């Protein structure tokens, strides 16, 4: 009798353990299929590296790291006085060659009207050649002026889109070279969050992997 009781007890204990194990496995399966979570996720955004198209001393820095900026907002300014003087000099050259071209045009026109009856063909051709040379110099001066104007405009570095300033490594008084990356801009509208496994909510994903200072306005955090 005792042997039978002992066997029944062992069988019951084994059965209970099997049932408990089944319940534990079932609950784990439900948890990982219905409400799984992970701290591993991929967060991506469109990042723009901003570099000036001109060189010079940085005179003003208008933003700070991690600041949210609007499109076309001024980030920093480079040595405007020098580029303003370069533009003024180029405009003076254009004005000079415009006056000179007008004088040479009148002289060439006068000689062409008089013709070979009043002067030699060589003198007429010389006046025409001088006019063409001055017109060429005028065109070069105008191109130089346009480039100087473009350089002056590009001394003001603006944000290309709405976003967060990051990796700001420029300071007033520093010399910056053309094409050297000064700051990066993380575009505000192109954030994506891709968890490696499913996650209960987008907000939770952003909360775990994005610093508080850069959380998306769209998440409500």
TrEMBL record:
SUPFAM superfamilies: HlyD-like secretion proteins. It holds the Pfam family HH_AAEA_pHBA. The keyword Oxidoreductase does not apply. Keywords: Membrane, Transmembrane, Transmembrane helix. It comes from the Bacteria. The chain crosses the membrane at residues 12-32. Residues 81-153 form the p-hydroxybenzoic acid efflux pump subunit AaeA alpha-helical hairpin domain. The keyword Phosphoprotein does not apply. This is Fusaric acid resistance protein fusE.
């Amino acid at each position: 009798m005792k042997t039978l009781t002992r066997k029944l007890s062992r069988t019951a204990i084994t059965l209970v353990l099997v049932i408990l194990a089944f319940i534990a496995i079932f609950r784990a399966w439900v948890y990982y299929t219905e409400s799984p979570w992970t701290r591993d996720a991929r967060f991506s955004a469109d990042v723009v590296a901003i570099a000036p198209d001109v060189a010079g001393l940085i005179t003003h820095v208008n933003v700070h790291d991690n600041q949210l900026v609007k499109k076309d907002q001024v980030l920093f300014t480079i040595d405007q006085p020098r580029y303003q003087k370069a533009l003024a000099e180029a405009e003076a050259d254009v004005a000079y060659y415009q006056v000179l071209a007008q004088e040479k045009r009148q002289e060439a026109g006068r000689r062409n009207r008089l013709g070979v009856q009043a002067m030699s063909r060589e003198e007429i051709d010389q006046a025409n050649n001088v006019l063409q040379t001055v017109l060429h110099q005028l065109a070069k001066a105008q191109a130089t002026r346009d480039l100087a104007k473009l350089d002056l405009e590009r001394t003001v570095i603006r944000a290309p889109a709405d976003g967060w300033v990051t990796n700001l490594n420029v300071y007033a008084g520093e010399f910056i070279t053309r094409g050297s990356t000064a700051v990066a801009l993380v575009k505000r509208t192109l954030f994506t969050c891709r968890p490696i496994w499913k996650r209960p909510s987008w907000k939770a994903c952003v909360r775990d992997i994005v610093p508080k200072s850069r959380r998306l306005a769209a998440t409500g955090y």
